Amino acid sequence: MTSQSPPSLYAAREPIFPRRVTGFFRRMKWWIMIVTLGIYYLTPWIRWDRGPSLPDQAVLVDMASRRFYFFWIEIWPHEFYFVAGLLIMAGLGLFLFTSALGRVWCGYTCPQTVWTDLFILVERWIEGDRNARLRLHRGKWNLHKWRLRLTKWAVWLMIAVATGGAWVFYFTDAPTLALDLASFSAHPVAYGTIAVLTATTFIFGGFMREQVCNYMCPWPRIQAAMMDPDTITVAYRDWRGEPRGKKHENTTGDCIDCMACVNVCPAGIDIRDGQQMECITCALCIDACDDVMKKIGKPRGLIDYLALSDEPAERAGEAPKPIWKHVLRLRTLVYSALWSLVGLGLLYGLFVRADIELTVSPVRNPTYVTQSDGSIRNIYDVRLRNKLGTDRLFHLSLTSDEILRIGLEGTEGQLNILVPADSTLLQRVYVTARPDDPAAQASQTPLRLWVEDSTAQIRASKPTTFNGRGQ
């Protein structure tokens, strides 16, 4: 009696070699790739003058100083809600575009798509188009194959290193870090980050490609909740193309089963099989099919951007609904409204925020101090924040319905204190009530601490309380 091992459930990946295609959507993807890669690689090198004491890099995530600089905007740690708001807007924008136009993010601007497009372009330049790459893949490892593969991998590696290097330039001054990297004097974290991003870019863009989208990215599985029959997406008009067959065969459909749509697909799927999770709606199949339809004298649009809800009308020979009626529907209007509200809220917060701020933390251990003359003193830790690009002299004062006196630790009777540019200073403040004053005898007395920059005519204040003996 012989025992047979169970069949393997694992199927090795068959590499996909998309064929070169030309057309409107391919040209648009080239331009998007150029713009997005240009923004990514060049942005850290843009300079922006903020003054002598501030960094001059236009976009900088300064972890050491806990700042985020974006041209004229500076985000402080306590203003992280701006970053959270931008992330919310990005999520709502993704929902909006997916609901209206399908997976346009995946097909045109997702980093995995952009870098995979770039890696495939390099592969095509070195190894040839689809058929040549297939023959090379199936051929033996000889000197010719080694030469082409090593050349391709070397170019991929250079792109990957540039990608990792560009990323770390966003976190410190780019020219300075570039010199440190070249002289091998940069911090080990920089080299480690570049190494990790180089490896992931090289593997994801060169080898894993569509597997990242299919198995690692959650969005293909989430998109179904964002889309409905009115969503404009890439689809095959089977009512026009079927039954398919070669041109010389006696068929009635426009599809001649040339497989052009399959051969250009970076995901390796057949769009004629209907909507599939693997489809990133890159629209290259549209360009390929339109080219074939032009050659055989058929109208374009056998594969096209369309709404599935238009199928009954098109089958009956009627005109589909205008695109704007598909795009402007309740779901997309709700997403647009939410996106706009968040954006307006961020703009409002950005324009009304003050250039100087203070926070007040009462020292409550002890709650108050009784001095030798019977006066009651409260102590406060006041954090003064100067967001301006120059040193500023701040004047502190208080307002209250009762008589209270203010003093600053270490200033010898002065109420002015110099706060350095773009920094925070912690100042201890004393508030005192004389023994017979109502504030000394009451349990609590409301007061407001003020800070004023007389040069810029800016004021800020925070409310707090004064604790007395409670009699």
Which short descriptors sum up this protein?
471 residues; alpha+beta; four-stranded antiparallel beta sheet
Q: Could you name the ranges where pLDDT drops below 50 across 5 or more consecutive residues?
A: none
Radius of gyration: 33 Å
Broad shape: elongated
Strand proportion: 15-25%
State the major sheet: 5 strands, antiparallel
Question: Helicity, in percent?
Answer: 40-55%
> In DSSP terms, counting alpha (H) and pi (I) runs of 4 or more, how many helices?
17
- DSSP E strands, number: 14
Instruction: Report mean pLDDT, rounded to a whole number.
Output: 91
- From the N-terminal CA to the C-terminal CA, the straight-line distance is 100 Å
Name the structural class: alpha+beta
Describe this structure in words.
- By secondary structure, the protein is of the alpha+beta class.
- It has 17 helices and 14 strands.
- The longest helix has 27 residues, at 143-169.
- The model has no long low-confidence stretch (mean pLDDT 91).
What's this, in brief?
This protein is of the alpha+beta class. It contains 17 helices and 14 strands.
